[in-house]
Automatic annotation (TrEMBL):
InterPro entries: Acyl-CoA-binding_protein, Acyl-CoA-binding_sf, FERM/acyl-CoA-bd_prot_sf. It holds the Pfam family ACBP. Keywords: Lipid-binding. Residues 6-87 form the ACB domain. This is Phosphatidylserine decarboxylase. GO terms for molecular function: fatty-acyl-CoA binding. It comes from Flavobacterium macacae. The lineage of its organism: Bacteria, Pseudomonadati, Bacteroidota, Flavobacteriia, Flavobacteriales.
Length: 87
């Protein structure tokens, strides 16, 4: 799959995810968040941490756990996760 193809699939998956109305388990939401951030922003660095509320701590932890993935790998996992939830 070319980089252009994965970008198109990623955007389509994002649109589907944005239109989802069902409640998802928190661990799934965190995984989706982490893949999206890694795909769009890149590796999480400790100096990016701002607030220390519990919700942000969980999000930061989820993102840091997948920081070894490249942007394209994170996009693929994001696409796979959204596809599994929307089919």
């Amino acid at each position: 799959m070319s980089a252009k193809d994965i970008d198109i699939e990623f955007e389509e998956a994002f649109e589907r995810a944005s239109n989802m109305t069902e409640a998802l388990p928190q661990d799934v939401m965190l995984r989706i968040y982490a893949y999206y951030k890694q795909a769009t922003v890149g590796t999480m660095h400790a100096n990016r941490m701002g607030s220390v509320d519990l919700r942000d701590a969980f999000k930061t932890n989820a993102w840091m756990q997948i920081s070894h993935l490249s942007s394209d790998e994170a996009k693929r996992f994001y696409i796979e996760t959204i596809n599994s939830l929307t089919k």
